[in-house]
Amino acid sequence: MRHANLSIFVPHLGCPNQCSFCNQRSISGAQSMPDGNSVVQLCRAGEQQLKDRCSDAEIAFFGGSFTAIDRDYMLELLEAAAPFTQGGVFKGIRISTRPDCIDEEILELLARFHVSAIELGAQSMSDRVLEMNQRGHSALDVERSAKLICAYGFELGLQMMTGLYGSDDRIDMETARRLATLSPKTVRIYPTIVMDGTLLADLYRMGKYQPQTLEGAIALGAKLLKFFSTQDIPVIRMGLHAQDTLETAMLAGPYHPAYRELCEGKWMRDQAFSLLDGKPKGDYILHVAKKSVSKITGHGARTIDDLGKLGYNIRIKQDSGLTGLTLEIREV
Q1: Which of 94, 132, 267, 292 could be disulfide-bonded to 60 (CB atoms 3.0-4.6 Å)?
Q2: Does residue 252 register a pLDDT over 80?
Q3: Cα separation of 37 and 45, whole Å?
Q4: 226-243 tens-digit pLDDT
Q5: DSSP string, 231-292
Q6: Comparing C-alpha atoms, which of 174, 210, 173 is closest to residue 192?
């Protein structure tokens, strides 16, 4: 049995300003706003689809700043979704919002409607980067809201972006370190994509913003995966969901539909090279968890070939004693 979300997008509602990178309709693929009736229909359909293969699904309102939308509209959506969390397949409601749209009153209201998890779009913990991208909040707002969410007993999720205007790998790694100190239960990582109709698109066209290369975004993503793993913080999403509207409106940036797998493959490649560092050339067996074999051999990965060119002849063996992305290497 696995976890799943029934995602309901509320695009571009509630945000008090326009961030440099944001075109939520293209990112989410949503072009219309859900109402209470459509939420009920979606939840009923979701129950039928998930009841036999999911143990702890959530109803997830994503796409906008949920706690900043019109209060009556927010209540309409919550009132429609809440009954499906009582004894059904859905264990609760997950929302995403801005760090400056959380306070005690809104948290008490969310608790009454069975909201179980709140994700904050932190994006960066550099005030300079936040200002350059017109986020309208500070790193202190992220810290304050995160602590308040935890104090009220909600599951905290944090979202960060890499390659923002004015940022770099060093700043992004520092963002990850500061987010980890807030003890989130989950993290999402999104490389910055240049979408048409945004300030970032204007800056890109003027030559004032250069997005990450895909290779650079993969290398940084692998480091971030490794870091959050050492902190026992699950990364539940890497990169934007594949959408026709996204690919149509995208101008530039490190988008790839299998971005996470590429990052995992890079992490495993780095492990393999590190494990062999200083060892004599020769024949070795690389032990890999069954579910991770494709990550080191698929999507154009050349780890084994590249090691062979250095004199290390590698044979991969599936190892039931290993899980995740951990590798072990043994001489033949």
Answers
A1: 94
A2: yes
A3: 13
A4: 999 999 999 999 998 877
A5: TT--EEEESPPP-HHHHHHEEES---TTHHHHHHHHHHHHHHHHHHTTPPSEEEEEEE-GGG
A6: 210
**302: which residues sit within 8 A by CB, 6+ positions away?**
none
> CB atoms < 10 A from the CB of 14, how many?
18
Residue 300 neighbours by CB under 8 Å, 6+ apart: none
Of 121, 88, 77, 85, nearest to 102 (Cα)?
121
The residue behind tokens 């689809």 is 49
Give the model confidence (pLDDT) of 21-42 as tens digits. Answer: 887 554 544 557 899 999 999 9
Measured distance CA(205)–CA(183) in Å, rounded: 39
User: Cα separation of 215 and 221, whole Å?
Assistant: 10
CA dist 59 and 149 (Å) reads 18
Name residues whose C-beta falls within 8 Å of residue 157's C-beta, 6 or more positions apart in sequence. Answer: 94, 96, 117, 118, 119, 120, 184, 185, 186, 187, 188, 236
CB 93 within 8 A of CB 61: yes
Cα separation, 266 vs 215, in Å, equals: 10
